[in-house]
Amino acid sequence: MKKTIIVLSVGVVGGVIFKGNVLHAIIMIGFGLYGLAPFGIFLLLYALFSARRGREFPAWFKETSKNWTLLVAALLLSYGVGMSIHSYQIRSVKAYVARAVPILDEIRKREGSYPQKLPEALGKPPWLLRTPIGYTTRGEIFQFAYSDNKGFMGGYKFNSKSRQWIYWD
User: Which of 112, 116, 134, 144 is found 20 to 30 A from 153 (Cα to Cα)?
Assistant: First the structure.
């Protein structure tokens, strides 16, 4: 039981650290395809041949199978937690921008241009927008943008002209 809690905790911590980014996916694919999958096939074949001969499984096989299952569960849990965090961050950005657009439009109507800095009434922007490209303006138009760490070097931007989220690479 103690080993199960430790391994699954490592999975959750891995998800929090990597947040479903591209490195997380590479680790998952590499470790899963080149480590766990071949070993899982070996365990399955061993189980099939042992069952066919009517043998009981040795203690090492039972322990190894349990550890393999724990590792697979930890990896899947890690990626699930990471993707959930990533999804939450994206939803936070989109909600913030949806709330900000009418306020920024009102400021432009009143002052003739969009503000250089986000108004304090909007509160602190979500983590993904706290970068130099998070909010930019050239007076007549504004843009929100963030790098999407789920991909290699892309991201999304929203500007006052198109009023749509557009993927950039």
Answer: 116
Residues near 154 by Cβ (< 8 Å), separated by ≥ 6?
Answer: 147, 148, 167, 168, 169
Q: Which residues contact 168 (CB under 8 A, 6 or more apart)?
A: 145, 154, 155, 156, 157
Give whole-number Cα distances, 112 to 104, 143, 144, in Å: 11, 17, 19
Q: Which amino acid is at 29?
A: I
Alpha-helix runs per DSSP H in the chain: 2-18, 22-31, 37-52, 59-111
CA-nearest of 124, 169, 123 to 145 is 169
* Structural domain count, the chain: 2
Residue at which a domain ends, from 38, 55, 87:
87
Tell me the pLDDT tens digit for each residue of 21-71: 888 888 888 888 888 888 888 888 888 887 777 777 787 888 888 888 888
Residues 21 and 78 in one domain: yes
Instruction: Give the structural domain span for 50.
Output: 2-87
What is the helix (H) or strand (E) element at residue 54, kind and residue range?
A: none
Residues 79 and 13 in one domain: yes
Q: Which of 87, 107, 127 is the last residue of a domain?
A: 87
